[in-house]
Amino acid sequence: MKFFHLSDLHIGKQLHHYSLIEDQEHILNEVIGYVKELAPDAVVIAGDIYDKSVPSAEAVSLFDEFLTRLADIQPSTAVLIISGNHDSAQRLDYASRILGRQNIHIAGSVPSQKGEYLKKVTLTDEFGEVDFYLLPFMKPGYIRGLQEEGEELPETYSEAVRYVLEREEIDTAKRNVLVSHQFYTGNGGVPDTCDSELFSVGGIDNVEIGPLMGFEYTALGHLHGAQQVQVPTIRYCGTLLKYSVSEAGHTKSLHVVELGAKGKEARVTLYPLHPLRDVRTIRGELTDILKSAGEENRDDYISVTLTDEKDPYRPKEQLEKVYSHILEIRMDNTRTRKRLEEFNDEAEIADPLTVFQDFFQEIQGRSLSREEYGYLEHILEQVKGD
After folding, report:
1. Rounded to the nearest 10 degrees, what angle do helices 352-364 and 370-385 cross at?
2. Disulfide-capable partner of 138 in 63, 89, 110, 296 (CB 3.0 to 4.6 Å)?
3. What predicted TM-score, i.e. pTM, was given to this entire model?
4. Cβ–Cβ contacts within 10 Å for residue 301, how many?
5. Looking at residue 372, what is its pLDDT?
6. Does residue 187 carry a pLDDT above 50?
7. Which of 30, 94, 43 is nearest to 70 (CA)?
8. Quick check: 325 and 301 in contact, CB under 8 A?
9. Pseudo-torsion of CA 151, 154, 160, 163, nearest 10°?
10. How far is residue 230 from each of residues 190, 227, 326, measured CA to CA in Å?
11. Helix and strand tally (H, E) in the chain?
12. 193-218 pLDDT tens trace
């Protein structure tokens, strides 16, 4: 059984103020080429199809074209899709029954009522059946309707995922694949993340990988950097394109997964991707950066850090003459580093009382009275005690 593992297409995304729709069309065309060349049994997309829950018309049109071209390829390739945290589950579910007849299987929503279960797609190869379980992005509150009388529903993300998977009563004698879009962690380790990803404060959306260990492979979406979570068979494939400056050092690849007979570990092969424009960081003095611009990289998305000790004349205008897609221009020299150090020193605070005194003086134009000072001091002492 051979399938492509994709995720986080984020169709319609902008990088700073640049639309990426042309770049996304280019990279999806390359995926189509690989489908024709490698003839996978399935293309799995693990969530975040769109960048917004209400995508633009051009974003919807591009994904529609992608699915249509996939459906036209012979021999037929199954397409398995789940929603991510950026998607609207209801919008993705629209017409999913009709699309299922075209071998395009979409799971937008998790089970929310008694009698509902995860969408399961069964494919067959020379070793027998493979069951693909489609688990869209979920929060504990999404599954309240599954509660039996007297049963306590899970409160954490980890408990919720375990609850949903356990009620499926998965046949472990068969080969099983899970498709999921969550922030998974293993043994307390934290996966590598990027600036373009969204997480809850305090790690409340973390999910332990324990319930995933029985699957032959878990195709994950949510993180933009390709990586495994503790074991090679629980894997984030990452994005097809770089979606932030923090991803400039990433190597984006197409993940092709092959399952053998039951008991054999899944094999993952990485195929190179060739973006229309790269995302790069450039650091140095302005004159050197201008000289290094070549025809092959002038259209890349670039983040520039200038190290000139003397501020150059109109650097943005000069850079725009040789680079067409400038994301940002930063300065890093002795003066800016000193200013940053001074700012950090000023940010150090002695105590909350001093901070409030300064704030009160700034807003009211006078100092705290002795009575006000005493009242505030009393409140702070109570807070410390609590």
Report:
1. 140
2. 110
3. 0.85
4. 23
5. 86
6. yes
7. 43
8. yes
9. -30
10. 10, 9, 37
11. 10, 19
12. 887 666 554 467 899 999 999 999 99
